[in-house]
Design a protein that fits this description.
Helices cover about 80% and strands about 0% of the residues. It is built from 15 helices and no strands. The radius of gyration is 22 Å and the shape is globular. It starts with a helix and ends in a 6-residue tail after the last helix.
């Protein structure tokens, strides 16, 4: 009996919290996100950035699938924990494979095919685990069948076909697969999916964003690796930390709590739709923005540290110049979309700041790299204050409105 008890799937309650098993599961995604940055850094170009974002979107889907599953079944129950460890192994193989996914290294396995096979294995494991957890839940099983036919099988076919090609053809096919995958989940609807614990669901997504922010620190560390520690390097690292802290404060002190409260206030399919839109879809731009910005931060630190090849007055160039501010722009626009979907105050500061950051690449290419990083850190810090002031003003206006007579 004890063996059966330990191996069975255990449903979660509405007060469920993040388990150590899920934290352990997230560790492999630290490396996966780092490898996406390495994929871009190896040959920075607009095409490579788009390809890296397609890879990130597929990795994000792998993580999200098990974030949803862990909200309805305890991840530390014996059967599901075994699945989690299996998925971790597969994702770790994918992480090793990511830097070569668009350009095979000589003598190895075909990287694109390895990536697609592993991705397909994760999606199948997720569907099977959900199916087993939903005994007697006809709505869930019907949704799982629709998901398999519309959001798993067609994208896998396109991904596999893309493996037979190289360059832009592969990229276009993979982008099509991503579009079908995400669109399929939207089309299948919310019936059958469940969010048992809003607090757990919000915390899981906050933790993965924290992992992405940690990638910016890793990128800076890699950027100065092998170079002497100088006052200028310390100053650049401090500016990068202030920038990351600004993004952290914007989410965890201005946006995340509001979204969690809105999620908890809903129930049934309305809660599921909100969770899908705000967390599964709109948290991806937050993670993508941090990863893009990390590429720019890494290059800034390299230029500041490598005085033998770079002058302190030298700016960033090309795609890397855009990624520094463009990544922040993607993050800010994603944050603004979350505020709008959460029925919060109009995020004017986030929208204006996001657009300005997206188009600031040419300006970054005109000023010293370190100055660009410092200015961006100060700008994000100011945006945190502006958005917070707008939020307090919006709440004050709502509280001041008279209550309609009964």
């Amino acid at each position: 009996m004890r063996g059966k008890e330990r191996s069975r799937l255990v449903a979660t309650e509405d007060d469920h919290k993040v388990t150590p098993a899920e934290l352990f599961f997230d560790l492999v995604f630290v490396y996966a996100i780092t490898q996406v940055t390495a994929l871009m850094a190896a040959a920075p170009s607009p095409v490579r950035v788009v390809g890296a974002m397609a890879v990130l979107a597929l990795l994000w889907w792998c993580w999200c699938a098990f974030a949803w599953l862990g909200n309805v079944v305890r991840a530390d129950s014996g059967a599901l924990f075994a699945v989690f460890v299996t998925v971790m192994t597969v994702v770790f193989v994918v992480s090793l494979d990511v830097p070569e996914v668009f350009a095979d290294a000589p003598g190895g396995l075909p990287a694109a095919l390895v990536f697609v096979v592993c991705y397909g294995a994760v999606r199948v494991l997720h569907l099977v685990s959900y199916w087993l957890s939903g005994r007697g839940d006809t709505a869930l099983r019907a949704t799982l069948r629709r998901t398999a036919l519309s959001s798993v099988l067609p994208p896998l076919v396109l991904l596999l076909v893309g493996c037979a090609y190289e360059g832009n053809v592969r990229l276009l096919l993979w982008l099509g697969a991503v579009a079908i995958d995400y669109g399929g989940i939207y089309v299948t609807g919310s019936s059958g999916w469940r969010v048992n614990s809003p607090g757990h669901f919000a915390e899981r997504h906050g933790l993965i964003l924290m992992i992405a922010l940690g990638e910016s620190f890793l990128a800076m560390g890699v950027g100065v690796s092998g170079f002497p520690l100088t006052v200028t390097v310390i100053g650049a690292c401090a500016a990068g930390l202030v920038l990351a802290a600004g993004l952290w404060a914007l989410y965890f002190r201005r946006i995340g709590e509001v979204a969690e409260h809105r999620l908890a206030a809903r129930d049934g399919d309305d809660r599921t739709r909100f969770a899908r839109d705000v967390y599964t879809f709109l948290h991806l731009p937050l993670v993508a923005g941090v990863v893009l910005c990390a590429l720019g931060m890494k290059k800034v630190l390299t230029q500041v540290a490598d005085t033998g090849h770079y002058d302190l007055a030298e700016p960033l160039h090309g795609t890397v110049a855009w990624s520094l501010t463009g990544g922040v722009g993607v993050f800010l626009l994603g944050a603004a979309a979350i505020v709008l979907r959460s029925s919060g105050p109009r995020p004017v500061a986030l929208l204006v700041g996001g657009v300005c950051c997206l188009v600031a690449g040419p300006l970054v290419a005109l000023v010293p790299a370190l100055l660009s990083l410092v200015a961006l850190a100060l700008a994000v810090t100011g945006l945190v204050g502006l958005h917070g002031r707008a939020g307090r003003a919006g709440r004050g206006e709502r509280e001041a409105q008279p209550v309609p007579a009964a």
